[in-house]
Structures are given as structure tokens and as C-alpha cells.
Here is the input.
Amino acid sequence: MRNFWTMYKRELLTLYLTPTGYIVMCVFLGVLGWVFWLLVRVLNLPDMVKIDTDVFSIMFGGTFFYWIVLAAISAALTMRLFAEEYRTGTIETLMTAPVSDIQVVLGKYLAALSFLLLMWAPTVLYVVVLGRYATVDYGVVFSGYVGTALLCAMLTALGLLVSSCTRSQFVAFFVSFVIILMLFSLNFMQNIVSPGWRALYQYVSVLEQFKEFSAGVLDSRSFVYFISVTLLLLFATVKSVESHKWR
Here is the structure.
């Protein structure tokens, strides 16, 4: 257990002590803050048709920016986790250290996920500020954060898997980003496939599974989906790391 925490703290400190971590954090908070400000302004325009929709139900998954920012940030935070180790050769030292492959994978994974989730912490101020001047549906806020945490967990696991398959950070970022966008696009595939395949595409669609969270509903099927995919991706990452010992 001590080896795991050592790995976890090492990776988390690396994210906080490198310019990449701060750049990613600033971009993330800048874009999210701008989206929140824009939503509040637009929904309060005098000539705006009044709609029975909470600001946070739109903010969590209701805009293009939410999905594109999460795709880019997840790919950026995970691109170096294994790719940099392979490029510099430090993976050999890591693999001979008294730490198992599972501990290495989970240490890197939880460090990246912790950093990503901590970036969401300042957004709680949006809820506090808006709550002083308007009515906030806290059920939507809570479910939105829960859904976002599950989504971040899955995307981080995906980025980690891709990083474990290449020596180039750029390749890891590009491939992760494209795969994440393809996962998001599965929702639109429902309209062009035959009815027999429509149910399958609807179930595997990330946007479809996230829809309930943005509506303030905690659906057990969505929990099962995100957790199952995340565990599968982590298992594949462990096997990918193990395979490098035989190369």
C-alpha cells in the first residue's frame, strides 16, 4: 500500500509542478467560466423566451463546449503518463521497483483523475454566486457533478490506455482526443443506422447515458455503464503495461 501512495503522490506532484498542469487548469477554468457567464446573460435577456430549464442542466452536458473541453483536457492530462516513461527509458526503472503493474497503473490513473476533479472544485463558486440572485435546482447540480465525475473517470482511463501504447505524447493526445470525440458521436449514429442497431448505439452512447445526470436523475444503468467501461479500460491498461516486459 505504501508503494501505491508513493506512486500516486509522485504523479500528482508532477502534474502540479509542471507548466502543462497549470496551462490545462487555466484553459479549463477560463472556458468554463466564460460558458457559465454566457449562459446566465443569454437566459436573462429581456426578449429571451422564458424556458423551464436550469442553467446548470445546460452547463453540464448541454453545450458543445462541455464535451470538447473535457475531451481535450482528459487527453492532455493523460498523454504523458506512460508515453514519457517509455520515451525517456524510466519505465525500466519503474518496472524493476518493488511495485506491481496494478499499483503503477492505479497510481497514475488516480493522480490524473484527482487533478481533473480538483479542477472542478472552483466551479462550486458558480453555484454559490447564482444561488444568491436566482433559484438553483440543487438536485440538478448534484447529479451534474456526479455524472461529470463518472465521465471524467472513464475518459481518464481511456487516455491512460492510449498513453500506455505509444512513446509519443503528441500521438497519445491526438489518438485519445479523436477516440473520445468518436465516442461522443455515437449518439448521432442512431439516426443513420437500421432500427435493429439503434438500441445498441443508444446504450453505448456516452451522451445518451449522461442525459439523465443533466436532468437531475441518478440512473443506476448509467452508473453501471460508466463504471464498467472504466474498469475494462483499466484492465486493458494493466495488460498493455505487462506486455512491454516481453518486448
Notes: DSSP finds 13 helices and no strands in the chain.
